[in-house]
Amino acid sequence: MSDDILRFENVSKTFPGVKALKDVSFSIRRGDVHVLLGENGAGKSTLIKILTGVYQADEGGAIYLNNTPVKIHDTLQSRSLGIGTVFQENSLIPHLNVAENVFLTRELRSKSGAVDWNRTYQECERWIRELGVDHINPRTQVRRLSVADQQIVEIVKVFSQNPSIVILDEPTSALSDNEIDNLFRIIETLKAKGVTFIYVSHRMEEIKRIGDRATIFRDGAVTGEIEDCKTADMDQVINMIVGRTLEEKFPHRESHIGDVLLDVRDLQVPNTIYDISFQVRKGEVLGFSGLVGSGRTSTAKAIVGAIQRTAGEIWIGGEKVKITSPSEAIEHGIGYLPEDRKTEGLILSKSVKENISLPSLLKKFRRGIVLDGRKERAAAEEYREKLRIKTPSINRLVNFLSGGNQQKVVFAKWLCSEANIYIFDEPTRGIDVGAKSEIYQIINDLVSQGAAVIVISSELPEILGICDRIIVMRDGRITADLDRADATQELIMSYSI
Fold first, then answer.
1. Side by side, which strands form the sheet with 18-29?
2. In this structure, which of 38, 82, 388, 442 has its CB flanked by the most CB atoms within 10 Å?
């Protein structure tokens, strides 16, 4: 008991229509990396939000910090207790620069009371060096940073507060392998100083690498514990998480590749991508691999008109098409699942139903001059069931769903649109192991029906597991076009760096 820094006893949380946590009890040892495992909607994020003061637990349970009962009423109190959090979705203010975000609400001031900007930038630079990410300038506006670099700024912000407990919620989802190595190095350094970590991840390989102990959640309850992550049997762990075995991580698919459906020729965006040319055929899954900043996402955005290209042509089914906006891409049968779901993929103030049906309103759900509400509801229910979106109702606002279930809603809306060409940018980011297998099967179903699918992913096993062909990018250019039979992780990395 004396080694426990944190203990939960019978903690519950109820929302209208759903019991998010059910009598959760477990303890966390000082200086451990304690992993929380479970499918999306299992209760992990709800527990974290209670610990950080975003939510308050129902009456009857208790939280003990250093063997002392605590009630955490808000985020400031949580921080004052030495708890820092890096959420999966960043909370940075885009128009402020990196240093301003890192020290927001705890500004470094001179004796006169004014903000001491010299000291602020010096301290920010010191913490950036500690993280080994010297390429980030403390004076750069956050909105000008990539998603990966924004995640790094979140980590800098939390670590600079010298917390005793750090919660990391999917911290590596937007990081490259080198950045993950840096993060794990820092975790090990701080562990040696007695810092405790609560680590949430769906990446099984990370659990063995960084975890000490683990607690498994399913449907709001604790269903199992792992005493030693390093020696755990991952097949058994997956079974404990999802309540069933996953026969194959990457479902088998017979490839029946047809004629060219999408032909991209000499695509250019100034200072971003250069002379990008490739083809995707009916029934083919084409993977895009490369390090963060290699130009993969910019290529996708240039194709769908989300950023303007200065040169290049797009041909669909043998015909040259004009695409200058995402709405025109939809008209030409292209569905795009963006890397950043919250700012680009969802309308958080709208319901699950409204988000799923949005790209298809005029094409599928219009009856004369009005919408066919019954048909819209039926479609939303169909995709809710197919993707196992955990929500008490399709009328629930997307903002109240877990991050993984929000990702499923983005996926559902493009499936509902019945496009011919799909571009999925990090489609399984923040998705649990059970849902990943289901999404891989959906991708298989799409190509078996003759669609062309582009998958952009930072996970090499995923790229190798589901793609027929793999394009590798570096510094805005294509460096390799590989058949899956010839590709290995080592070969892909050699073309990436």
1. 18-29, 4-15, 62-65, 68-70
2. 38
DSSP one-letter code for 424 = E
Helix %, strand %, coil % for the chain, to 5? 35, 25, 35
Look at strands 311-316 and 221-226 and give their pairing: unpaired
What is the pLDDT averaged over residues 474-489? 93
Q: What integer best gives the mean pLDDT of the chain?
A: 88
List CB contacts of 141: < 8 A, sequence separation 6 or more.
Answer: 94, 95, 96, 97
**Going along 326-383, which residue ranges are E strands?**
334-337, 366-367, 370-371
Answer for the pair 321, 332: CB distance below 8 angstroms, yes or no: yes
Q: pLDDT of 69-96, one tens digit each?
A: 999 999 889 999 999 988 777 789 999 9
The whole-angstrom separation of Cα 343 and Cα 357 is: 18
pLDDT in tens, 314-339: 999 999 999 999 989 989 999 998 87
R_g of the chain, CA atoms, integer Å: 23
CA–CA distance, 409 with 355 (Å, rounded to integer):
7
Name the most confidently modeled range: 84-93, 209-218, 430-439.
Answer: 209-218
pLDDT tens, 116-131? 999 999 999 998 888 7
Q: What are phi and psi of 100, to 5 degrees?
A: -65, -35
| Phi, psi of 210, deg, nearest 5 | -120, -20
Q: Which of the four CATH numbers 3.40.50.300, 3.40.50.2300, 2.170.270.10, 3.40.50.1100 does domain 4-242 have?
A: 3.40.50.300
CATH entry, 260-496, from 3.40.50.1000, 3.40.50.1820, 2.60.120.620, 3.40.50.300: 3.40.50.300
Nearest to residue 109, comparing CAs of 123, 94, 97, 89?
A: 123
Quick count: other Cβ atoms within 10 Å of Cβ 231? 8
The answer to whether 184 and 177 have CB atoms below 8 angstroms apart is no
CA 109 centroid distance within chain: 36
Question: Domain locations in the chain?
Answer: 4-242, 260-496
What is the Cα–Cα distance from 141 to 128, expressed in whole angstroms?
Answer: 15
